[in-house]
UniProtKB/TrEMBL annotation:
GO terms for molecular function: methyltransferase activity. It holds the Pfam family Methyltransf_25. One of its GO terms (biological process) is methylation. It comes from the Bacteria. The keyword Nucleus does not apply. Residues 41-139 form the Methyltransferase domain. This is Methyltransferase type 12. It comes from Streptomyces ruber. Keywords: Methyltransferase, Transferase.
Length: 250
């Protein structure tokens, strides 16, 4: 399978930094509020490791399994982990995805942010089932959702613009419907000096969409509740075992 991030990995970490400003404290609140107090935390689709840092700071001494299928993104992730002695002691970087990852039992939390759309419906349902099977009592699965929730066109928009040294980096995004329950994102990235492009890269990838009620029904079929938490614009959803130890939402 081709790596959709092979040509864009150099841009992504700096371009998602602003999005993590509200996301990081919201995720930390969920993790510290969970009933489960032991077991590892699994970060699925760990990307460049920004979520790993949040998990590390929120849950001291907890082992973290950072699962990332992209070789390019994993290089950034591993460098971030290796550069910090405490992360290096606690974080294990695993090449894989939620389908081929060897899930441990008694997981304290599963973090799956910015990655649900990468999963076709069957794999998404498998994620719910894996979590229901392997979460410790009181454990949580944390996901986030964002529009579009149905196949629709997204007009081209600049999603990020960052200055580093003498250069500027920007990213643009657009999407088109490409199936009954999917869209195709078209991403463009550019490096500029004083407004003049120096290098650029573009990539397309499939993204499966579903309304929230569909996700909640799938989760319920696996024995999980599906509830919002935190500020609405962050889009966090917490899944816990139905009838098990639960998490209070804000």
């Amino acid at each position: 399978m081709s790596d959709p991030y092979e040509r864009s990995a150099e841009y992504l970490d700096i371009m998602i930094a602003d999005a993590w400003q509200p996301l990081a404290p919201a995720l930390a609140d969920v993790l510290t509020g969970a009933e489960a107090k032991t077991g590892a935390v699994v970060d699925l689709g760990a990307g460049s490791g920004r979520g790993v840092r949040v998990i590390h700071d929120a849950l001291p001494r907890t082992p973290i399994l950072a699962v990332e299928p992209s070789v390019a993104m994993r290089a950034v992730l591993l460098a971030r982990v290796h550069d910090d002695p405490e992360l290096r002691r606690r974080v294990t970087v695993i090449a894989g995805d939620c389908a081929d990852f060897d899930w441990p039992d008694g997981v304290r939390a599963v973090v799956a942010l910015n990655m649900l759309g990468h999963l076709p419906p069957a794999q998404r349902r498998a994620l719910w089932a894996h979590a229901a099977r392997h979460l410790a009592p009181g454990g949580v699965l944390v996901v986030n959702i964002a529009p579009p929730f149905e196949p629709t066109a997204v007009e081209r928009v600049r999603m990020a613009h960052v200055a580093v040294g003498q250069l500027e980096y920007e990213g643009w995004a657009s999407a088109r419907p490409s199936g009954a329950d999917e869209i195709t994102w078209h991403m463009e990235y550019r490096t500029l000096r004083r407004g003049r492009p120096l290098t650029q890269a573009s990539v397309e990838y499939r993204w499966w969409v579903a309304p929230e009620e569909t996700l909640a029904a799938e989760a319920a079929g696996a024995g999980l509740s599906f509830r919002p938490t935190g500020a609405p614009d962050v889009g966090l959803r917490v899944l816990t075992r139905i009838g098990g130890n639960d998490l209070s939402t804000s």
